[in-house]
Every structure is written in structure tokens, then in C-alpha cells.
């Protein structure tokens, strides 16, 4: 058969999707291939489930200007989008989680997540909050989610695991332990360090993977994601 007769499958594209009107949602990463999604509608159905949208997702928009995505092939590798139902696109600062108004920013729509300056660390510490970012065990497609806890309230470990279970939504079920990036299990509140990264693990063994290297922007000066949830 002539090589001209062989149709090459389009390359995979990695995109990040936010929820329309939600300034605190950190975004969900998707790998889009023709093998998994034949149509835009099929992809929107998957987005609906993955971002836990209250209503079915029927439209995708660019986060800064609200341009609607008409076809699956219009998705650009490395870009971010906003998932919406039939409601209008809500113009928020999606690339800066936790900030509600868009005041003009140099942050590009292309490539990775926004990494706010580390001054947020001092702000949250001043407010009396403990915060860290948590990866999902074995998941190299999803960004870390934020964990914010008031220091004024004694930390109950069972309550923390329940909170992690709700946020992580692991395929394996409930979160049974929290591990450091080297796989060491965190045994209690005294092992937690402000601003650090951890991995939520279920009944399975900890999976040592390059979570930080692949899911945290490498061009960030401090290489930290500060999310306020």
C-alpha cells in the first residue's frame, strides 16, 4: 500500500480545563487523542464528569477572551479552556486561581499552570492557615489540588483523610494515607510542612513517579503553586 494511503492519527494534545465562573478551581488536565475522543461532544461528556460540573458541559471557551471552541480539532496543545453549559462565558481570572477579576495580565493562555509569587505564603501564614498541594497517587494527568487548613483548629487525622478523599476522588476509593514525594508516609500533623507537596494514596502502594517534574511549571522561579481554596 502506498504511504499516501495511510492516514496518520493526529498527535495527542494536552489541555487544562477550568469551570465557568469558579475562581478557585485549579484546573483539570486532559490528554486528548482521536483514539479516546472521536467528537467534541464525547470530550465534553468526559469533562463533565472529571471537573464535577453541576450541569452538563456543552461549550469550551478560551479563558481570557471567551472565544468558543467549535470543533475538537480546534483544541491547541498546551492551552487552557473554560468548561460551560449553555450559560454565557463568565470572564474571570482563571489563570490566577482565587482572584475574581481579570485586570489585564501578561500570563499567556498557552502552556502550563499559573504559578503565583511566593508572597502568597506569607499572606496565608499571616491569616493563620496551613496550606500545601497534594498529588493523586499514580496520576500524571491531574494537577495537584490545594489543601488549606486553619491552624486555630486542632487537626483530626481522620477528618483530614476524609477531606482528602473528597478532594482527590481517587479511582481506588478513599484516601488512607498521605505520603511525601519520596514515598515516606506522613504519620501526623507534626510531619506536615507549610507549602510542601504530598501524595494522596488509597489502599494501594505508593507509586513513585515524577509528579513534581511533570505537573509543576519548571519555569517558575520558586517552583511552587499557591492555590487558595
TrEMBL record:
GO terms for cellular component: microtubule; microtubule organizing center
GO biological process per UniProt: intracellular signal transduction
Keyword Repeat assigned: yes
Sequence ranges assigned to domain Doublecortin in this UniProt record: 13-95, 134-212
Keywords, comma-separated and alphabetical: Repeat
InterPro entries cross-referenced by the UniProt entry: Doublecortin_dom (IPR003533), Doublecortin_dom_sf (IPR036572)
Domain of life: Eukaryota
A Pfam family the protein falls into: DCX
Name of protein: DCD2B protein
Organism: Nyctiprogne leucopyga
Lineage of origin: Eukaryota, Metazoa, Chordata, Craniata, Vertebrata
Amino acid at each position: 500500500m502506498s504511504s499516501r494511503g495511510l492516514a496518520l492519527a493526529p498527535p495527542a494534545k494536552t489541555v487544562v480545563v477550568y469551570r465557568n465562573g469558579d475562581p478557585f478551581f485549579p484546573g483539570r488536565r486532559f490528554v486528548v487523542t482521536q483514539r479516546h475522543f472521536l467528537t467534541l461532544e464525547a470530550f465534553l461528556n468526559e469533562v463533565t464528569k472529571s471537573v464535577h460540573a453541576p450541569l452538563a458541559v456543552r461549550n469550551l471557551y478560551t479563558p481570557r477572551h471567551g472565544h468558543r471552541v467549535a470543533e475538537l480539532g480546534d483544541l491547541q496543545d498546551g492551552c487552557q479552556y473554560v468548561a460551560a453549559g449553555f450559560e454565557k462565558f463568565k470572564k474571570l481570572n482563571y489563570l490566577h486561581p482565587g482572584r475574581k477579576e481579570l485586570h489585564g495580565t501578561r500570563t499567556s493562555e498557552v502552556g502550563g499552570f499559573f504559578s503565583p509569587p511566593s508572597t502568597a505564603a506569607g499572606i496565608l501564614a499571616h491569616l493563620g492557615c496551613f496550606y500545601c498541594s497534594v498529588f493523586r497517587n499514580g496520576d500524571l494527568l491531574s494537577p495537584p489540588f490545594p489543601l488549606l487548613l486553619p491552624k486555630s483548629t486542632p487537626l483530626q487525622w481522620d477528618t483530614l483523610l476524609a477531606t482528602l478523599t473528597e478532594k482527590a476522588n481517587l479511582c481506588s476509593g478513599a484516601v488512607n494515607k498521605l505520603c511525601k514525594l519520596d514515598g515516606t508516609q506522613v504519620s501526623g500533623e507534626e510531619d506536615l510542612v507549610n507549602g510542601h507537596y504530598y501524595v494522596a494514596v488509597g489502599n494501594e502502594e505508593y507509586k513513585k513517579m515524577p509528579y513534581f517534574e511533570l505537573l509543576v511549571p519548571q519555569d517558575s522561579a520558586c517552583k511552587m503553586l499557591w492555590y487558595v481554596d
